[in-house]
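Please decode residue identities from the backbone states below.
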């Protein structure tokens, strides 16, 4: 990984949209700092688009799409994207909504089996607001070891599910979708070229995004995931979490 300051003016000035992870990248340890939030307005004042890409639930993303100063949000690790067009929220899902109850039943059965092998695990506190996936809490209100996390992932994948490890949850779902595919779809919907975007994240579940896009940035704590992350970002910030996000936005603005 290179220091962010190594990014050239040409690469920076080609950026038309900032795609960003939320937990651990935009939000600091469960607290959204004002300076990070207001930098979204800076992005858009400069004519850039802002697109959140998160594992957080549909219920949260609905509020984000309605109220935040952003252009779109991809949620539940790529199950859908929402954006506002005039006053109307447009909701696009990877699968038709008829598939959702079938997947939910399969997830419930998988969770019952998981509980037999890992009786101490808890679903994430935001599970009620999810439509497409199951989130196991690993570091939000409980704390699991790296071994427990990997055992859960292996168990779920052996049961035919997809998984992603964030800094707080293991997300589990059935279906052939992911954050990078849905990000490409939202870019197409908004008329953006995938070569003209930058992505910033912090965790193993950002690894496919680091692989998919050319200009990628990790906040400082991306270095904490040795052995869990397949592809690292091209650049790394000096600051962590939301302050790393702000560092990127200031850098992009200063080089335009
Ligand atoms: Mg994260």
């Amino acid at each position: 990984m290179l220091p962010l300051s190594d990014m050239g003016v040409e690469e920076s000035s080609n950026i038309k949209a900032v795609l960003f992870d939320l937990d651990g990248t935009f939000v600091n340890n469960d607290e959204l700092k004002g300076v990070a939030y207001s930098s979204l307005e800076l992005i858009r004042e400069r004519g850039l688009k802002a697109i959140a890409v998160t594992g957080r639930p549909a219920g949260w993303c609905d509020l984000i799409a309605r109220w935040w100063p952003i252009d779109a949000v991809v949620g539940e690790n790529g199950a859908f994207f929402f954006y506002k067009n005039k006053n109307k929220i447009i909701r696009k899902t990877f699968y038709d909504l008829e598939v959702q109850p079938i997947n939910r039943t399969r997830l419930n059965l998988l969770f019952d089996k998981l509980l037999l092998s890992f009786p101490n695990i808890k679903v994430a506190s935001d599970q009620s607001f999810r439509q497409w996936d199951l989130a196991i809490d690993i570091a939000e209100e409980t704390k699991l070891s790296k071994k427990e996390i990997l055992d859960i992932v292996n168990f779920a994948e052996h049961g035919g599910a997809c998984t992603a490890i964030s800094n707080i949850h293991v997300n589990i779902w059935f279906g052939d979708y992911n954050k990078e595919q849905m990000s490409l779809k939202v870019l197409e919907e908004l008329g953006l070229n995938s070569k003209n975007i930058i992505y910033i994240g912090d965790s193993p579940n950002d690894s496919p995004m680091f692989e998919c896009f050319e200009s990628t940035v990790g906040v400082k704590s991306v270095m904490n995931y040795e052995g869990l992350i397949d592809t690292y970002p091209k650049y790394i910030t000096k600051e962590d979490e939301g302050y790393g996000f702000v560092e990127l936005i200031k850098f992009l603005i200063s080089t335009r």
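Observation: Residues 99-173 form a domain with the Hypothetical Protein Ta0175; Chain: A, domain 2 fold (CATH 3.90.1070.10).
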